[in-house]
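Bit of a strange request maybe. I'm writing a small parser for structure token strings and I need a real example to test against, not something I typed by hand. Could someone generate the tokens for this chain?
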Amino acid sequence: MDAIVETRTQGQPDFTAIKTKQKATWEDGDYHGFATYMHDGAVEILNSWDLAGVKTLLDVGCGSGQTAIPAALKGMRVTGVDIAENLIAMARELAAVTQLDAQFDVGDAEALPYADRSFDAVISLIGAMFAPRPERVVAEFARVLKPGGKLCMANWTPASMPAKMFKCCSEVVAPPPGLASPVLWGDEATIRERLAEHFTDIKLTRKNYPQWHYPFDEHELIELFRHKFGPVKRAFDMASPAQAKSLHEKLFHVYRDSSETSNGIMTITGGEYLDVSAVRR
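Reply from user aminoacidic:
Good idea to test on real output. This should exercise your parser:
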């Protein structure tokens, strides 16, 4: 597959404003409730990563702890970081309920609040890919990892259902000009180029998000996204009546074309992601 070119317009984007909007978007809705339907798949992906021997692990873009808490249950000393304060609060609450000694911090993937060489492994499940400056994210991954440390990521590909969904939403809420698309993290040539300076033994595999099921139809799925998933919620909130109708129709077709339904259970089959594994030089 040819590399997708990262294009930027002239002039420097206002990254402070961009991050403020991103933070508000991910804090909107109810991501913890939304992610309930993806939890089993998240654990399966975590279990597929080779984290043998890892004692200290950082989960970047941890949300409310979908992978961080299961990792802590495996006995690793886990730290989770996310830009959304309400999700970090939820992660702390869940960790307390299960009496886990896990740390959760509000923070920025582009400026991680940790010392150099702090972790044996860094993971990110559909999280760090949304930070606006990928070069800074990679530099921070490298900085906080110990030499020989492991990086594992799962990133939506440009062909995935979520990528198509975000494209529909961008017709209502246009992304800031000059930024690379988040789904470039799911393009093999792009990510090899990004990681090459700091990482070796880069392994990339396209996979489908496992165990992604909903006990309802496409219209109900739109309502779930509309009320609980920040980016889609924001798009509907900002849409005119005509735009909202068009967005509803487009999402219906995206979800239908990316799923199979049997016995009232809708399974997402278009959840393609790029599984990333690399070792810190």
